[in-house]
Design a protein that fits this description.
Bound molecules: zinc ion
Helix content: 55-70%
Strand content: under 5%
Mean pLDDT: 82
Number of strands: 0
Structural class: mainly alpha
Number of domains: 2
Low-confidence stretches: 1-10, 16-25
Order of helices and strands: HHHHH
Shape: elongated
């Protein structure tokens, strides 16, 4: 009997952010937010230019601030979309039996906590599944 080949789909929690709204044109939630923020930034840029042309400098400063906020939001959503793509590809390769290298950072919680905590979907050595398997193995070895 050869090695078991797992053909399970990637973790559903991993695919949740990439919920497909149109099968022919997949758009992730992050991508939609990115597009909305980009459109808002373009509109606020036009409003800021219009305000400057009409010598309305105070509203122009408000519009410019809005442009900065929405541009940052668009970049953040782009990074989230890219990370979700990488995590899903990693999970797909894992499900197919490959052993892909951990992503850098291994999970977003590790980045936010400076390595003190790790996410359930951690791609490194600190995932909850691996921890539970390790504890079960230790318990099994100790109990036998
Ligand atoms: Zn991690």
């Amino acid at each position: 009997m050869g090695p078991a080949v797992t053909t399970a789909a990637p973790d559903a929690a991993c695919l949740a952010p990439l919920a497909l709204t149109h099968p022919e044109k997949p758009v992730s939630t992050y991508r939609r937010y990115q597009h909305a923020a980009t459109a808002g930034a373009v509109l606020l840029t036009a409003a800021a230019v219009g305000a400057v042309l009409h010598h309305q400098y105070v509203p122009a400063c408000g519009f410019a601030f809005g442009v900065l906020v929405l541009a940052e939001a668009a970049l953040r959503e782009h990074r989230r979309h890219r990370r979700a793509q990488l995590e899903c590809e990693w999970a797909r390769r894992r499900a197919l039996g490959e052993r892909p290298a951990p992503l850098d950072p291994c999970c977003l919680l590790a980045r936010a906590s400076h390595g003190q905590a790790h996410d359930r979907q951690c791609t490194g050595e600190h995932s909850l599944g691996r921890f539970i398997a390790q504890v079960e193995a230790e318990h099994r070895d100790g109990g036998a």
